[in-house]
Amino acid sequence: MKKLIRGLDKFRQTYVSTHQELLEQLSHGQKPRVLFVTCSDSRVAPNLITDTDVGELFVIRNAGNIIPPYGAANGGEGGTIEYAINALGIEQVVICGHSNCGAMKGLLKLNKLQKDMPLVYDWLKHAESTRRLVLENYPDYEEDDLIEVLVAENVLIQIENLKTYPVVRARLHQGRLKIYAWIYNIETGNVLAYDARTHTYVPPEGQLLEEEDSVRPFVSGGDNESLIPIKKELEALLKVSPETSNAAEAATRSLLTLFDKARRMGMNNIELQNYHSLFSESVQLWAEKMHSRA
Q: Is 276 found in the same domain as 170?
């Protein structure tokens, strides 16, 4: 408790004194950009790992980053989801699992929890689909590997549960909501994001390209000759093999700039998608190089 009290004093002296304008704005209301669903595990700190400030994330935390299907439970998760999307207008949701998750270890031995921790048992039953999927499809895995699979599959199943909520289904249908699956590795500090095209977890930087596509409409037609210099730059960038994290970051920025320029100058949807596919492996390699900075 002494440490917490000293922390309060440090917070007032260092953070509050240098963020008066932000805190004043937040006193009039919140406008978070992302609903972040993650585990209660003390080793997972959403604002820290995403480098976001106060007011940017609307967070749901519970054991196992679980979202009970609509109507299955009357807990705070459902009400918080409705409020985040309907009242706050949030258009991005991240469900983030993590390595060495105690909830997933408990899920693997669910029946043993019923006597000593009946409430935990009842809660983890909401992840029964995860447990059944993994046990029936990965029968030859050792326990440690099985837990990693549980973490990865559980995030995807919780996204399916999230889609059972009427407000979520409505916004997805309108194209006004995006949902992302992440896994945070406690040991390395790295985050991987699920890529539905390859059915694997990859560095999340590749999603920057998807975001660019979602916020800017494609333009068809245009002067094809005017695109020749951009295509040459893209082809040259495709051959780049950055040696440092800073070079990899610069290459990623250059790619985003070139895609934006190509779109504005009339490169059509199909051609842009082809270039995206060509650069998918490069973006992953560049992301790994940037992560190696630490």
A: no
